[in-house]
Amino acid sequence: MKTIRFTALSAIVISLLMIAAAEAGVIRPQDKSGQDYVPTGKGWGVPAVGNPGQKGGKGGGGGGGPKTTSNGINYHGGPVMLGTTNVYYIWYGDWSTNNAVPILTNLAQSLGGSPYYNINTSYYDGGNNKVSNSVAAPSSTVDSYSRGTALGDTDIQGIVTDAISSGSLPKDSNGVYVVLTSQDVNETSGFCTQYCGWHTHASILGKDTKFAFVGDAARCPSACSAQTASSPNDNIGADAMASVIAHETAEMVTDPDLNAWYDRRGYENADKCAWKFGTTYKTANGSYANMNLGGMDYLIQQNWENANGGNCVLSYP
What we know:
Number of domains: 1
Largest sheet: 7 strands, mixed
Number of helices: 4
Distance between the termini: 24 Å
Structural class: alpha/beta
Radius of gyration: 18 Å
Low-confidence stretches: 6-32, 50-63
Mean pLDDT: 88
Order of helices and strands: EEEEEHEEEHEEEEHHEEEEEEE
Shape: globular
Number of strands: 19
Helix content: 10-25%
C-alpha cells in the first residue's frame, strides 16, 4: 500500500522529490519482546502471530522464522506471482470525461519488459523461481456506482467479485484486479487520510484472488500527489495514481498473500521506497518525470531491489 504524505509539493523543488515525505500509518517499532511485524497491505505492520519471525499476514502460514537476506528484506515462505501478470482495471464511478483512461491503460500495457518492472525479478519463491518481467493488460471493465460513493474494504472485494461472477472479467489465477475509483468516490477506511491505495487477497469464486484499491488522487492532491500544480500528462490525479498502481502491482507480485517478502517492520518492497523518486527530468509542461513508458512520461516511485545490499532504485540490475 502507498501511505499518504502530509507535505504538499505544489512548489516543487527537484531535491524534494528525492526525499520521502511524512507518512501516515507509521510502523511501530518492535516491542520489548523483539516481536516482528507482518504487513497489512495498507502500508503498516501488525505484530506477527505467535513467536517472533512467524509467518503471518492475512494469508499467513504456520510457524518458523523467515529466510533472512543481507538486502534489508526477508522471505517468509509464501508464494510470489510467476509468469505473466495480467492487470485488470475496474473503472468504478464516472470516468467518461477523464483522460485518466488512456494514461493508466498505457501504464499497464507498458510496465512489463521495462527496466523499472525488472526490479521485481530480484524476488523469488522457496524454489528459487523468480518473478518475471512480464505484464499484460488483457481487458478492463466499468462499474457505474453499483455500491454508491462511500465504499468500505468489503465493497472493494464485492466489486471485484461482481466483475468476475458477471463475466465482465475472467477468473484468472495470474491476474491482479485493480479497482480505480473516480474523484467523487471515497474509500471510508482511510483513503486520503491514511493511504492512497492498498492491496490484499481473498478467495473469490473458489480461487485465491489478488486485488487492490487505488483512488483518484484528484480527491486529495495534497495527500496523494507528489505534484499539485502540474503533472507529466496534464492530469494530476491520474499521474499520481500511476505511481500508486506501480506500487501496489510490485507488492502484489512479490507478496501476493502478505506472507512472502517484507521486512521486520511489516514493510513490503514498495513500502520501503514510498515517496522516493530518484533522478528526475523536466517535461515540456514544466512538471517532473523519471521514466517514459509507452511514449508517455511518468513520475513513479522507486522500488526496493532485493540485491546489492538492498536499495531504492528505478531500474535493475
